[in-house]
Amino acid sequence: MGICSLKEVKVALLFLFFSMLSFGQTIEFTKRTGTDNPLDTADVGTGINSASVDIDNDGDFDLFIGNLAGTIRYYKNISTEENPNVFEEQEAAGNPLALVAVGANSSPTFTDLDDDGDYDVFVGSGSGISYFKNEGTITTPIFVLKTGSENPLSGLVGASNHSYSTSFVDIDADMDLDCFIGWIDYESADTAGIYFYKNNGTEVAPVFENQLNAENPFRDFNELYPNPVFLDMDADEDLDVFIGKGNGTYSYYENTTEAEELGLDNIQNENVHFFPNPAVSDVTFVVQQEFVKVELFSLSGLLVYSGQITKETPKLNIQNFADGIYILRLQDGENKIVKKLVISK
Hints:
mainly beta
């Protein structure tokens, strides 16, 4: 049986979190088999590591699956209202990652590394982490392998029985993506914590630097198979962590960082605030400045909106955004405020 990545449970954890926000409904999961399972016929071999992402920007989630062979399989979501939950494997030219061959234990992670509005992809393996930049578009990706200095994680090389996987998240609330790197290993003596690569560059041109000793909050995590998943589990506007372990259990770490240490809320409340939150159709801003730049990010770090709010045009229409949790960044030219916005129609 293959080793399942915590990426498989991320959707379930997010569903749990949203339900907690929504009046505490009872959560139930019912196993579906046969034709009721949209991936019933998928057989990708040993060592499954999957990533769900709307790769063609058509409003639904597609699925990429890594495996022991070091390749990436692609299942496109071709669902319709009349025939929902249908995935169809795309091969050859239909798979934008068909040429990926990283040796063994491929583990894809999608993120907008260069803040250009489309997804790039990192593929972890036993030999390190490969970077494929999207040189196509948000609807038709063309992934091109970048090596050497063009790969911001090229400095990490394979060791022992490691098989790496990446988690990108803005952990220090400076609006660029940092990187945590876990691995699968078969010898507990070889584990030495989860790597933390802080982005000391920018959101457009990241420079990842390995944080050592006290600078790495997970330096002492020394259990098998760490693969961190980040989400705001307690709705306090910072990201907590679930970490899977080789014995089939999870460790949970609450983020207890003080907001002041992250530099949040530099714009004073009397200068700018917004309502309602959760929002249904519009968000209204109350600002004292002539204008405030507004940016909206998904939890994966993808910029989904950028614009300006003024005293004369204080509303942002969010009807075309999917339900969920977003990160809202407001800037007045000198200061910034970072808040969580929940959209629930």
